[in-house]
Amino acid sequence: MAVMSISRQHPETPAADGDPARLDGEPLSQVATRYLREAILEGRLGAGVRIRQEAVARELGTSRIPVREALQQLENEGLISLSPRIGARVARLDFEESAELYRIREELEPLAIAESATRLTDAALGQLRELMLQIERSDDPALWLLLDRRFHLASYAAAPMPRLLKMIEGFWNSTQQYRRIYYGRVAREREDASPQELPMTHLDHRLLLDALERRDAVDAGCVLRTHIRRTRLALARNQELFTQ
Amino acid sequence: MAVMSISRQHPETPAADGDPARLDGEPLSQVATRYLREAILEGRLGAGVRIRQEAVARELGTSRIPVREALQQLENEGLISLSPRIGARVARLDFEESAELYRIREELEPLAIAESATRLTDAALGQLRELMLQIERSDDPALWLLLDRRFHLASYAAAPMPRLLKMIEGFWNSTQQYRRIYYGRVAREREDASPQELPMTHLDHRLLLDALERRDAVDAGCVLRTHIRRTRLALARNQELFTQ
DNA sequence: CTCCAATTTCTTGTATCCAAAACCGGCTCT
DNA sequence: AGAGCCGGTTTTGGATACAAGAAATTGGAG
User: Closest residue of A to B84, CA-based?
Assistant: First the structure.
């Protein structure tokens, strides 16, 4: 209790912390949201971990109010699960929920890429190609994860459907932790056991980029749908990822 | 300012208000969320209307804190738009945003009904048929709106995809105000001008129910996709709904 | 009369404080 | 010995208080 007094931090606290980038007059709740979201996406907060309001507030040097709003925001994004009077935990997807997300993505991402395909600038296509090559070269699973995400999201970015793009980003965020685990394992096994998983993905990327460079919306949609479905089925073959 | 002291309500306030159903230990923020959501869906709060935290708090006899959480929740649902330091307004969709929602629905609702079609019980089918007949008989646009919504959501309900169903309900909520305006006008014009709009919808419903009774997932999906697309195109022909 | 600006008012964002529910430990009773 | 109960502790939900930013209004100048 006496410790409480330590937490008394005044608003102007410019305290040397590199935590979040707090720009101009941005509400602290948004700072807290970004802070927690990044912690979850980077895996610093693993699935199921409890998040205490006061602990986060202390880390950020704020009161619990902005933290509470951040938690609610993240619950809406599907990154944490929040039970009244119990508390917040990093969301843990079971296999069915995960499969459902992939099934939804299978419908929405082809739409996004189809709408994007005809609108991508040559510059954007160049960046996509560059990203694809980097992905093929990368062998660090964390880097791979980051680049793959960037590649796909960039391929949708020209679609004039902001709400759709937000939803898709949310899906990627929700499943990020599992992709991390999965590709971490794939990378570990690559030398000996399953050498076809990643190359298959690389092939899909090439087909996708080819369709995009031809501005072929239909083809891009089909390739992407297959790509996502393949991933979903791979997930089904690795259900033990969820049983932990 | 002196008035402020009046608003001083203690937590136990059993004040006689029928506002929201506040059950057991439910957080007030959820009560506030339901309260505002209903107000918006029923049209008591029209598009663009500003929502003041303190006003809502006073109506509910709470502080602003639960109201703020409700506002954030409703923003995630797309029912209000919330700008930092400015305030909250009931969301106003322009034509493009609305078309985007319909385009997304065109992908997701066929999925939902396909997954639902093979799982609907005979009892559920009976209720659907009853709903359909009520819809055809109803001439009050408000009732029509309610029943149509119930019919479609009920047709998806058997799909084992809770997240998808929540998203779909959110889309219906987001566009509810515009449907209200649109069908209100259609009803007014029915006697003289455009007598084909509603019967077309009734026909779609019959085709849909037929497919469902045959448990034909593919057919149901196709019919539904066409139904939604038709609605989207009707929307495009009535863009002036948004220019107000 | 209109337009700009300074002040006033209002509203939001956040800190602090309080009550009550959930958790945790030991204790008792069977 | 194990299960249930009871008190202290922790943690959340909510209220109130206050500071800072936006909006509104009034006063003045052109």
Answer: A27
- Across all strands, nucleotide nearest A63 (CA–C1'): C15
3-state secondary structure chain B: CHHHHHHCCCCCCCCCCCCCCCCCCCCHHHHHHHHHHHHHHCCCCCCCCEECHHHHHHHHCCCHHHHHHHHHHHHHHCCEEEECCCEEEECCCCHHHHHHHHHHHHHHHHHHHHHHHCCCCHHHHHHHHHHHHHHHHCCCHHHHHHHHHHHHHHHHCCCCCHHHHHHHHHHHHHHHHHHHHHHHHHHHHCCCCCCCHHHHHHHHHHHHHHHHHCCCHHHHHHHHHHHHHHHHHHHHHCCHHHHC
> What SS3 class is residue A158?
coil
CB-CB neighbors (< 8 A) of A108 in chain B: 104, 107-108
As a whole number, mean pLDDT of residues B102-109 equals 98
Distance CA B228, CA B103 (A): 8
B46's tokens: 């029209």
Residue B39 structure tokens: 């107000």
pLDDT tens per residue, range A119-137: 999 999 999 999 999 999 9
* A interface residues, B as partner, C-beta within 8 Å: 25-27, 30, 65, 68-69, 72-73, 76-78, 84-85, 96-97, 100-101, 103-104, 107-108, 111, 160-164, 167
Chain A CB contacts of B85 below 8 Å: 25, 27
Residue A138 predicted with pLDDT over 50: yes
Is pLDDT above 50 for B9? no
Specify the pTM. 0.89
